[in-house]
Write a structure and sequence with these properties.
By secondary structure, the chain is of the alpha/beta class. The protein contains 16 helices and 23 strands. The chain has two domains: 8-253 and 461-482, 3-Layer(aba) Sandwich (Aldehyde Dehydrogenase, Chain A, domain 1), CATH 3.40.605; 257-442, Aldehyde Dehydrogenase, Chain A, domain 2 (3-Layer(aba) Sandwich), CATH 3.40.309.
Length: 503
């Protein structure tokens, strides 16, 4: 966009229609250039009231729509998503910066949740017991909550919203999405395509804005549940604030994911997996591997040598160039934070094997680019090990045993994801059974569950009782109701019973 062009103004999606916002605007940057490409309107109180009204009006009919008819709309939605994949991926890359291939992978994983939601007729089946007592039948069913909301982060502008709204809507709820203000266009495209698929107006809505809009959502008692993905401090705050208004809450927080490399590991396979897991999407993933725990000095020496060569050769540039491995970071603030952590690592005594700072790209001097960074001889007490950095920094920790590696992981406050590289089945089984982490990979660096399983960490990586998508989503987005009935034959009357009823 030239300096003389007026940035496009993005608003909201309410009641099946795009709505121009009337509140204050925020800048939406292209991270590859550092230029303002769009303006985003922040919702006013009246606009949030309008979106709640639209969702409320739609709920009565939608909750009574047969699940099979909901599934038919979801099938059409899946087809439209696949037909428009290029447009959605271009929107993701333009505002987030990730390479197009990564954007495509993100969207495909989101579509997998839509596919899972297409089986809602089976997933919502209740439970039935005939003759639970004398001539008494009992059954349970799962009923929609009402209006539910999702608050999503910048790093997966399509996939994370799709972890939420397809299952919520399939269960019979209406949904309000508040996407990240940094890359909101993908969410608006997802909403338009859902309407095109035949979703009734008001069932899926998008409201944009800043922290104030989030607080309005959390405090409104008409919203029955909130799903959130973001950093741990904010996840904890959202969990506490939303719970006070009686909402059901699932708040997924931060992570510090470790990969254990055993002496018997296939090192080529481990290094290949670590490269993608540590530096893919510029490290801006909650499942990124940011620590490699090498068991034995020889294992560490070989791993660092291979990693250093590969990290130096990373191709960094605009995400629109399919030859690039990494795009830019999301913002100037993120770039400053990553540089600060590198300085902290040096000050605290870690060895910076590969320094990706001060990267200059001709024609993209204003972009938020940084190369890959590799630290060796990192200790448990260093901030680059303890903190979630959310950037392209891989730390190597050296230990002498699997038990020592596991102790480091288990002591960490986060418990999102981890993995082990080994050829030893007994070691892998012991690791999987005793590690205090919610998602575990064996020779798989990014153990993100498929759509038919649920995603969620342990410890301070998840606030709430239920994980996101998969079977847990049915429990999260519905209430169980259990009915017990008896139809006595005419003239078959019992006397009063004063003991507690039993079978």
């Amino acid at each position: 966009m030239s300096s003389t062009e007026t940035p496009e103004l993005l608003g909201h999606y309410i009641g099946g229609r795009e709505r121009a916002g009337s509140g204050e605007t925020l800048d939406v940057f292209n991270p590859a250039t550092g230029q303002v490409e769009k303006k985003l309107a922040c919702a006013l109180d009246a606009e949030l009231e309008e979106v709640i009204h639209a969702a409320s009006l739609a709920f009565a009919a939608w909750r009574n729509t047969p699940p099979q008819k909901r599934a038919q709309i979801l099938f059409r939605y899946k087809q439209l998503l696949e037909a428009n994949i290029d447009e959605i991926c271009q929107a993701i890359t333009a505002e987030h910066g990730k390479v197009l291939d990564d954007a495509r992978g993100e969207l495909i994983r989101g579509i997998e949740v839509v596919e899972y939601a297409c089986g809602i007729s089976e997933l919502l089946k209740g439970e039935h017991s005939k003759n639970a007592g004398p001539d008494i039948d009992s059954w349970s069913e799962f009923q929609a909550l009402g209006i539910v909301a999702g608050i999503t982060p910048f790093n997966f502008p399509a996939m994370v919203p799709m972890w939420m709204f397809p299952m919520a809507i399939a269960c019979g709820n209406t949904f309000i999405l508040k996407p990240s203000e940094r890359d909101p266009s993908a969410a608006l495209l997802l909403a338009k395509l859902f309407t095109e698929a035949g979703l009734p107006d008001g069932v899926f809505n998008v409201i944009n804005g800043d922290k104030r809009v989030v607080e309005l959502i959390l405090d409104d008692t008409r919203i029955q549940a909130v799903s959130f993905v973001g950093s741990t401090p904010i996840a904890e705050s959202i969990y506490q604030r939303a719970s006070k208004t009686g909402k059901r809450v699932q708040a997924l927080g931060g992570a510090k994911n470790h990969a254990v490399i055993m002496p018997d590991a296939d090192l080529d396979n481990a290094v290949n997996a670590l490269m993608g897991a540590a530096y893919g999407s510029c490290g801006e993933r909650c499942m990124a591997i940011s620590v490699a725990v090498c068991v034995g000095e020889e294992t560490a020496d070989k791993a660092v040598a291979q990693l250093a060569s590969r990290v130096k050769d990373l191709k960094v540039g605009p995400g629109t160039d399919i030859e690039n491995d990494m795009g830019p970071l999301i913002s100037a603030d993120a770039l400053e934070r990553i540089n600060d952590y590198i300085e902290q690592g040096l000050d605290q005594g870690a060895e910076l094997v590969v320094d990706g700072r001060n990267l200059q790209l001709a024609g993209n001097e204003g972009g938020y680019f940084i190369g890959g960074n590799l630290f060796d001889r990192v200790s448990e007490t260093m901030s680059i090990h303890s903190d979630e950095i959310f950037g392209p920094i891989l730390c190597v920790v050296r230990v002498q045993s699997l038990d020592q590696a596991m102790s480091i992981i288990n002591r960490h406050e986060y418990g999102n994801g981890t993995c082990i590289f080994t050829r030893d089945g007994a070691a892998a089984r012991y690791f999987s059974d005793h590690i205090q982490v919610g998602m575990v990979g064996v020779n798989v660096a990014l153990p993100v569950p498929v759509a038919s399983h649920s995603f969620g960490g342990w410890k301070r990586s998840l606030f709430g009782d239920l994980s996101i998508y998969g079977p847990d989503s049915i429990r999260f987005y519905t209430r169980r109701k259990t009915m017990t009935q008896k139809w006595p034959a005419q003239g078959d009357s019992e006397g009063a019973r004063f003991s507690f009823p039993s079978s």
